[in-house]
Amino acid sequence: MKIETVCIIGMGTMGSQIGIVCAGGGYRTIMVERDDGLIKKGLENIRRFLSSREKKGKMSGDDVSAILSRIEPTTDSNKAFAESDFIIEAAFEDIDIKKELFAQIDAARKEDAIIASNTSTLSISEMAAVTSKPQNCIGTHFLIPAALTPLVELSRALQTSDETYERTVEFIKSCGKNVVTSSDSPAFIINRLYIPLLNEAFYLLQEGGASAEDIDEACKSGLGFPLGPLAASDASGLDVVLFCIESMHKQLGDKYRPCPLLVKYVKAKRLGRKTGMGVYDYTKK
Ligand SMILES: NC(=O)c1ccc[n+]([C@@H]2O[C@H](COP(=O)([O-])OP(=O)(O)OC[C@H]3O[C@@H](n4cnc5c(N)ncnc54)[C@H](O)[C@@H]3O)[C@@H](O)[C@H]2O)c1
Prior knowledge:
CATH superfamily of the largest domain: NAD(P)-binding Rossmann-like Domain
Structural class: alpha/beta
Shape: globular
Order of helices and strands: EHEHHEHEHEHEEHEHHHHH
Number of domains: 2
Bound molecules: nicotinamide-adenine-dinucleotide
């Protein structure tokens, strides 16, 4: 079956960007959120991003209009699932929420639709197991910021068929992205390496080993990172980073214990850029 319509669940940090990628690939892109206020916020983020790309000369006004014309936000999830050929779940990093969504999609979707999750650390095989066609499920892990990062990491559930995998590779490449593939092991490739580094940066900060600015500068100038680990955590959302390291801790053991300073920031609702304050203060910028 040809992929013509894509559905993205969630218009948060990742969903909004994944929507831009899919609409940019020429697909009709239905975006599902929980209420109209969240749709408005998601659309504002999408428009702001596209307009900054246009101002920087990276995109033409016609490209921006074409992308926006292909995005259809809605709260009617069952209708969206029934009309879509490829469905990407980008809701909260919580296995129960994701399993519930996979079951709901399964009940409403087209026969051959592929169901993908953007999970950072959770088991695709476990999500696939609640559906009637687990062979049609796969992980598509877009990286932040998805519209600018060239890579998408695919993770095959135990049940993923070769056909689903090949159709997914073709679809992701048609959106202008490269792929790497991992098996369904906790946190796949990128986050298995990267999330512990973010957690370790919080330990170093907590122990007074260096200032936040110097930790970030060391990784930028010394290791060639585009953003230092603490600024990157603020961009991702400290709650999202904590979900990821907690999930790795649960699945892989004590080596991945969340840093207490990170836990404290999240409890204080200092979640990073999205709340105006994380490791750094964004309210004055
Ligand atoms: N933030 C990152 O850096 C990053 C990077 C790669 C992958 N991820 C993964 O992507 C997923 C989304 O992360 P995020 O940072 O965008 O989270 P987020 O909290 O910014 O956004 C999640 C969105 O999903 C919506 N949502 C939740 N349940 C829903 C439902 N039933 N129907 C429709 N919408 C629903 C929420 O309203 C929210 O807007 C997570 O699995 C996360 O681990 C995040």
